Structure formats: C-alpha cells, structure tokens
Amino acid sequence: MLIGEVARRSGVSARMLRHYESLGLVRPTGRTGVGYREYSGEDIRRIFHIESLRSLGLSLREVGRALDDPGFTPSALVDDLIRRTRERIAAETELLTRLRRIDAAGPADWADVLQVVALLHALGSESAGRRQRAALSTVEEDTVPVEALVEAILSESDPNVAGALRWALARSGDGGLALLAEGLRAPAAEVRRRAVQAVAEVPDGQATVLLKDALASADIVVRRHAALALGARGVADAVPTLVDMVVAEANDVDAADALSALASDPALTERIATRLVDRLADRAVGSSARRRLTQALADIPGATASRALAELSHDEDRAVALTAAYVLKLRDAR
Known about the structure:
The protein is mainly α and 334 residues long. It has a domain at 3-72: Orthogonal Bundle (Multidrug-efflux Transporter Regulator, Chain: A, Domain 2). It contains 19 helices and 2 strands. Strand 1 (30-31) and strand 2 (37-38) form a beta hairpin. It is elongated, with a radius of gyration of 34 Å. The mean pLDDT is 89.
C-alpha cells in the first residue's frame, strides 16, 4: 500500500508518516519499481499501535521504547502518565476557575480584567502581608467576585489575613453564603472551621439559618463557633451548646457572657438558669466544671438562679461553696 492510501485509511498525514520514518518508528518494508514507499499489513498495524499509544499522552520517544524494547514494562510509564495527567487537569482547572472569577466580576474592558487578575494573584501570593493588603483592597475596588473571597477564606491559614478576608466578605453582602454552606460540609476540618467563622461575621438572616444548621454538625469546634455567634444574635438554640462549653472549659468565659446576654430576655432567663442548675446536679460533672457553672449563674437574673446560688453556698465542695457565697454578695450589692 502506497503512502497516500495509508494516509487516507489511517488518518495519519503523509507528512507525519515521513516524520515517523525519520525517527525510526515505522519504516515501509518495501519499495515499488520506481522507488515509492510501500507499506505492508504489519507496517500499518504498527502505525495504529503508534497512534494508540500517542492517544495516552506518550511522547514519540516513549512510543518507540514501548514498541521496540523487549524489556519494557508499562507500569512505571503508566504511573507517570497518571501523575502528568493529574497535574495537567489541576492546571487547567485552576485556569478555568480564574476565568470564571474574571467573568463573574463583569469587567467592562481589558483594564478591568487586568485589575481582577492582579488581585487574584495577590490573594494567592505566598506573602501573608500581600494577601492581607489584597483582602483589604477588595472592599475599595469592589471588583473581585465573592467566589474568589470565599475560596481565599477557606484556604487561608494566617489568622490576620483570614480576619481581613472575612471582613471584606461581610461587607460584600450575603452572596458567598451558598459557597460557605458547602464549606461547612467539607471533609477537611480546617475548611469547616474557617467556613463557620466566616458565616458568623455575615450580618444576614440566611447566615443565622446556616449557623443553626451548624449546631448539629459532627464537628464540635464548628458547633461551638456557631453557638457563640448565635448567642450574640439572641438565638435560644445556642443555649445547650453554650452550657456544654462552660462545662468543657472551651471558650467558657465567652460562652458564659453569651448566656448572660441571652438571659437578658425574660423569655429565656428561667430556661438558662434551669439548664445550668441541672448540669450542676449532674454527678458526672467534676469540681472545676461545677465552679465554672456557679460563676456562670452569677450573671443570670431571676429567682431560680438566686435560689441555686444560696444552696450552693453550703455545697460540700468548699471551692463551689465559696464561689457561690461570693457571687451572692455581688448580686446583693447590685
């Protein structure tokens, strides 16, 4: 079969077939009387083998080795191809994400495009200072898509930069809440915790809904962040988790302050006092936790808290009794 017919049947151009011949990948086994290349059936099968291996991403050098080296084993090369393909996909995915971010910003001209690109690069900088400046500048520029801010928040490990990013996101409105909701369900604990901190700073009713959902999270840190934020918003659902935080000595001072703020609502006063008293009566609660619960009762108004403190002032645990007596004196002095 002559080269022209081989090209038509194989889909490989005559020019590429000559290139393969120059590299020694496939050589026509015969020549016509006038010197034209003539390919045998075996030559054509080899051409198809070459094309098949090229479709996997092998270079022509690797194709030649695979076909001609009797000792060649494909496992190492396939593993390398997998690695290279993953790297290529990651790079293409990153490019696609960047293009979507630019498109979401709605640039009016190429100057806007360049501005967005510069800010996106700054948000991804290795310098924490540069990332922080970029985060703060997004408020003034008002051109970086909310999606880019959320992505930066969920990946940011520096607390100062993270704070600036959350502030910028909170000022941008509630557009990032859907993405933050995904972050709350992320497999990585750090991503979930960054997400709940960001949601806590968004002053929006939908953010409160997300925080309520976060109270049921399997991640205890997420639950605690959500409880503190909900306590500041006057949401009663946070009470059980806040009391548990006092017992566990996990941000217990902040939790006690949140309980005090919630107890200023007459509708919640007795509920909070009763919850604290019930935990004080729990035999599984240790001495130091009982002292913290007693201190938490200090700022809870109402008769239930006062009666509990009077009884606790005679508690068999001297530390608890002294704490309760001191708290009663403070209450009486008010």
